[in-house]
Amino acid sequence: MAEMPEIRQATVAELADLARLERDAYGEHAFPPTALRQMFDIAPTLLIVAVKDDELIGHAIVLPSVSDGVREAWFVALAVRSDMRRSGTGRLLSSEVLRRAVGHGYETVMMTMEPGNTAGRALSESLGFVTNEQAGDYFEDGVPRLVMSWQAASGASLPTPFG
């Protein structure tokens, strides 16, 4: 069995590597390094990484939402290095960041995704995310997005990074 990556909170020293991974995964839609630094400052325990053989191979970011009377967070990024995809790393990162969001009192986690992202959609649905709507022009770029939500009760059997 392949050795599992270490799943843990990111450090400031890893933000440059995290930005490179973000660019590789999302191209022109990647968060810039300045935004990643601010996300780290806002919610450091919800910016987590996967490390294997001392190399950053993935990250997941959830941010709190500030709305009147709504206690939810947004899953804004999940990236896994291309040679490590389909290894279970995305599932481990997602499960851990959802667990941490619940630990901070967030029972609902929202996300958006391109409808054609079949691997991402399958992973999200297997974790308990459901599609609420398809927004035709969510980012005002003409590309539709699925708006999905996850409820803490739906994730009772999230896999752990420890087996």
UniProtKB/TrEMBL annotation:
SUPFAM superfamilies: Acyl-CoA N-acyltransferases (Nat) (SSF55729). InterPro entries: Acyl_CoA_acyltransferase, GNAT_dom. One of its GO terms (molecular function) is acyltransferase activity, transferring groups other than amino-acyl groups. PROSITE patterns: GNAT. Residues 5-153 form the N-acetyltransferase domain. This is N-acetyltransferase domain-containing protein. It comes from Planotetraspora thailandica. The lineage of its organism: Bacteria, Bacillati, Actinomycetota, Actinomycetes, Streptosporangiales.
